[in-house]
Amino acid sequence: MTRDAALRIVLRSVAIAIAVAAVADPVMTRTRPAPHTVVVAQLASASVASVESAIRQGLPNAEVGVRPVLDRRLPCGPDESCVIVADGSIDVDVPQDLRGPVSVIRLALPAGPNVAVKSVAAPQTQHGAGSGVLRVTLAGSGASGRRTEVRVTDGAATVGSASYEWKQDGDAAVDVPWWPLGEGGRALRVAAVPFDGEASAIDNVVEVGMSISSSPIGVLMFDARPSWAGTFVRRALEDDSRFRVEHRAGLAPALAAATAGGRLDTRALDAVPVAIVGSPNGLSEGDVSLLERFVGVRGGTLVLLPDGAPSGASARLFSGRWTEHLEATPSAAGPLRASETLRLAEASRFDTVLGTVNGAAAIVLSPTGSGRTVVSGAMDAWRYREADGGAFDRFWRSLVLESTASGSSLAVSLARAVTAPGARLPFTVRHRQMDPGSQRTVIASATCGDGSAQPVRLWPAGAAGVFAGVMPVDGGQSCDLRVELEGGAVTSAGVAVTNGATGTVAEVSDKLERFANRTGGVVAAAGNEAAVTSALAAAAAQPFVPVPFHPMRSPWWMSPFVACLGVEWWLRRRAGLR
Fold it and tell me: Choosing a second label site near 67 at 20 to 30 A (CA), which of 169, 209, 552, 564?
């Protein structure tokens, strides 16, 4: 065999071997450093370019990229190193699937005169037929002699405002009256209007959620015998469209004046959160037993309007020892005035004193079983009901409103009143009734925006009559949760849906820092990025890891394959072979 023939065989064999290997596509492994990706999450209104540059210099071998926040979601994957750059102006939902530590770099606000919204105290619910009050706490620095206007807006409409003139730096509480525009979940934007020369405006705004309802609140008024106090309290509530009052007043042993629902029985007490009893000394043994079940088992609020010292069966409804006092001139009893008073000898540490006369408790709220009892010892406060601009009416209306949430037989409590699109909002349903042994089916459904109602699953949450659920927030400006007893009571709650800041700058910053500490990350101020990069470099210093690869998939194998076939063909042609 000639040398050319042997070379042709070798070249052909090499080409065939390359083709067979390409068809077989073998898998091999090689070691290389573990990939290190660092995501800089921009949670700041200002530019983060300087922070990004410092992180790149501190981690020259890492892939560093800046990602903005979309739909309040932290833009970090489960296996990526996450560095949050925040000034507190952008809030996010903290994820639960991040496995690595999350670090936070704080951007300081510009120096200079500034006013910040420090907190907003607001109830979760508000009746649509009445005004509300938001207590806004401001923090002022270098603002002495300036005036700050606080505005409350619902969408594009201003629904409340108040102003505050700064005498000195520090914290200031401003009560802002406002009026609801509609029903359901509403997002109220609370803004302190920046004054000329204010250093920063990102800490001037916060959004709070409110569930607005227009359903009247049921109240049962029962006068065991004619009572002036009961009559004027009833009139104060009847003159307000927020209340639906059913009443009954005993006039004689076989004669009473009453509305259709004004009965003191199990059905009537199951339907109302508040029962107000005038002249309780006239109650029978059976009446007292019903009211004890209403408060202790059903969890309602009982308001007693005595016209004398407790006696008879009704004494069981009073906690502690009460004594009667008469004065020639009226004295202040909290927001009321009275000259004939009952005073509690000694209030317990569980009691809430709403009004005192000469240092002695006269209006007392006491927890009783699952509910609570309010005793108004200002017996003739009705005589002075026009004093202080109608404080008598305001007190009783506010007391009944405040008692509604805790005394309702069917109540729903949302984890928060404002949330972001796409969130899953936990909630709790509580159902209590006069007969706890009877079983009732509870049904829940959620409606978001203009969509249709979707059923929401409930499951027992431990105590009897308590259920838990999670409401999906799909979209729109609000979502409404409707809960009903099969063939019985219905209640609802609304949640506002917004992408705005639902916490103050300080609250958002504190939440992010707690999240970083919980995950083992580093919290540092801007300019000290080295503390973060050092921690990330130490976490990334891991041994080489095996990586599978397919060597025959490289396009460079075409070069030797074509070369072998070309040279073998040329040798055959030179030898005169086909």
Answer: 209
CATH code assigned to 114-213: 2.60.40.150
CATH 3.30.360.10 fits 217-407, yes or no: no
* 410-497 shares the fold of 34-109+503-540: no
Domain boundaries, the chain: 3-27+551-574, 34-109+503-540, 114-213, 217-407, 410-497
Nearest to 381 by CA among 314, 327, 312: 327
Can you list the alpha helix ranges (DSSP code H) found in 89-220? none
- Sequence-distant (6+) residues with CB within 8 A of 511 are 91, 94, 503
Tokens of 531: 């503390």
- Per the listing, tokens 């509300």 go with 132
User: pLDDT exceeding 70 applies to what percent of the chain?
Assistant: 95
- Tell me the pTM: 0.74
pLDDT tens digits, one per residue of 487-541: 777 888 888 888 766 778 888 888 889 888 888 888 998 888 888 888 888 766 5
Buried b (16+ CB within 10 A) or exposed e, 307-337: beebeebbeebbbeebeebeeeebbbbbbbb
pLDDT digits 0-9 by tens, 447-478: 888 888 899 999 988 777 899 999 988 767 78
Please state, rounded to an integer, the average pLDDT across all residues of the chain: 86
**Beta carbons within 8 Å of 316's beta carbon, 6+ residues apart:** 288, 292
| 3-state secondary structure labels for all residues of 470-533 | EEECCCCCEEEEEEEECCCCEEEEEEEECCCCCCCHHHHHHHHHHHHHHHCCCEEECCCHHHHH
Class at the top of the CATH hierarchy for domain 34-109+503-540: alpha beta
The predicted pLDDT at position 541 comes to 56
Q: What is the dihedral of CA 163, 166, 169, 172, to 10 degrees?
A: -30
